[in-house]
């Protein structure tokens, strides 16, 4: 955290435009904490972000001394409404993990299972720090929108007996449907466009152009039924150029002067129409002021 804060201070506390910020010390500290990132092999930006947030959270956890045991005994919330069940699970999470990182980046996913035999619904809730979205096949126009990626992510999925969990009512594996939705919206939502897909023998990269909004991204349709609009504004983009085996990361970030393009040793101003490319890999959205205080209810 100290090394990372020094990088941030260097970026924000400059008095002129010629100051250089070298993150080498931060990288040295980071790879000591996460040896997986040592060396010069190709690494994934989303994985790096997950490790970084986890390490920062661990250092500033407001509940660092709560003992983590094995898997908690399963609790039944059948008599509760979904919102009460979700709130109970979120409270349980905060009893162990509560930090400024959680305040900003953590949300809650709801996975809903519907048994085709007895029509029983069951819900599980998981904490997330980013959404990894699949990219659908190109349309006739050759373009895919971020909303189409979100639709595919939340699309109902059919599970056969072999791949389905145990039905709580039938007490056996049955055919069922599964649907993902956002139960609790974070202040900052990190959207990962899953451009890398793995087959049995190889990994391939999608270069599909995915268009995305700069303001008023409404995630309300992917939340509880009556949550209303939940709006987000884009503030940063991580781009990946190249192939699976040889790539290069750049970033586009907004500040009071507009959008800047960061490419290792150079920073240049760019216009909004230069931001939409087929290299966009990770999108960073922050909750807009108009919806930041909205409480999700069901």
What does this structure look like?
With 298 residues, the protein is α+β, with helices and mostly antiparallel strands. 21% of the residues lie in helices and 30% in strands. The protein has helices spanning 2-12, 24-33, 45-60, 82-94, 100-105, 146-153, and strands spanning 107-115, 121-128, 131-133, 144-145, 157-159, 176-184, 188-193, 196-198, 203-205, 210-211, 217-218, 231-242, 247-255, 258-263, 266-270, 280-287. One of its GO terms (biological process) is protein deubiquitination. Keywords: Hydrolase. It holds the Pfam family UCH. One of its GO terms (molecular function) is cysteine-type deubiquitinase activity.
Alpha carbon gyration radius: 21 Å
The proportion of residues in beta strands is 25-35%
pLDDT averaged over residues: 88
Q: What's the SSE pattern?
A: HHHHHEEEEHEEEEEEEEEEEE
Biggest beta sheet attributes? 8 strands, mixed
Shape: globular
Care to count the β-strands?
A: 16
Number of helices: 6
User: What gap, in angstroms, lies between the N and C termini?
Assistant: 37 Å
Structural class by helix and strand composition: alpha+beta
Amount of helix: 10-25%
GO molecular function, one term: cysteine-type deubiquitinase activity
GO biological process, one term: protein deubiquitination
Pfam families: UCH
EC number: 3.4.19.12
Summarize this structure briefly.
This protein has six helices and 16 strands.
Topology:
Blueprint: H1 2-12, H2 24-33, H3 45-60, H4 82-94, H5 100-105, E1 107-115, E2 121-128, E3 131-133, E4 144-145, H6 146-153, E5 157-159, E6 176-184, E7 188-193, E8 196-198, E9 203-205, E10 210-211, E11 217-218, E12 231-242, E13 247-255, E14 258-263, E15 266-270, E16 280-287
Parallel strand pairs: 3-7, 4-10
Antiparallel strand pairs: 1-2, 1-6, 5-6, 7-16, 8-9, 11-12, 12-13, 12-16, 13-14, 14-15
GO biological process, one term: protein deubiquitination
Enzyme class: hydrolase
Organism: Xyrichtys novacula (Pearly razorfish)
């Amino acid at each position: 955290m100290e090394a990372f804060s020094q990088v941030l201070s260097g970026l924000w506390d400059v008095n002129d435009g010629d100051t250089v910020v070298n993150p080498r010390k931060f990288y040295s500290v980071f790879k000591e904490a996460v040896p997986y990132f040592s060396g010069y092999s190709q690494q994934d930006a989303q994985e790096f972000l997950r490790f970084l947030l986890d390490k920062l959270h661990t250092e500033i956890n407001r509940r660092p001394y709560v003992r983590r045991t094995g898997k908690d005994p399963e609790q039944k919330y059948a008599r509760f409404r979904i919102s009460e069940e979700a709130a109970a699970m979120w409270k349980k999470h905060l009893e162990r993990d509560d930090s400024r990182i959680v305040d900003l980046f953590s949300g809650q996913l709801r996975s809903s299972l519907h048994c085709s035999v007895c029509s029983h619904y069951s819900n599980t809730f998981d904490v997330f720090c980013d959404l990894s979205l699949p990219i659908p096949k190109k349309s006739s126009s050759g373009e895919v929108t971020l909303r189409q990626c979100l639709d595919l992510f939340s699309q109902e999925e059919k599970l056969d007996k072999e791949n389905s969990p145990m039905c709580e009512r039938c007490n056996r594996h049955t055919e069922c449907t599964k649907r993902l939705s956002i139960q609790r919206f974070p202040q900052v939502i990190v959207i990962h466009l899953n451009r890398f897909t793995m087959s049995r023998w190889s990994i391939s990269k999608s270069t599909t152009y995915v268009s995305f909004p700069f303001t008023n991204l409404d995630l309300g349709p992917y939340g509880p039924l009556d949550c209303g609009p939940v709006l987000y504004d884009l503030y940063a983009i991580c781009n990946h150029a190249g192939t699976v085996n040889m790539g290069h990361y750049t970033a586009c970030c907004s500040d009071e002067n507009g959008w800047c393009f960061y490419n290792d040793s150079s920073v240049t101003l760019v216009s909004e129409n230069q931001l939409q490319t087929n290299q966009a890999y990770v999108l960073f959205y922050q909750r807009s002021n108009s919806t930041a205080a909205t409480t999700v209810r069901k």
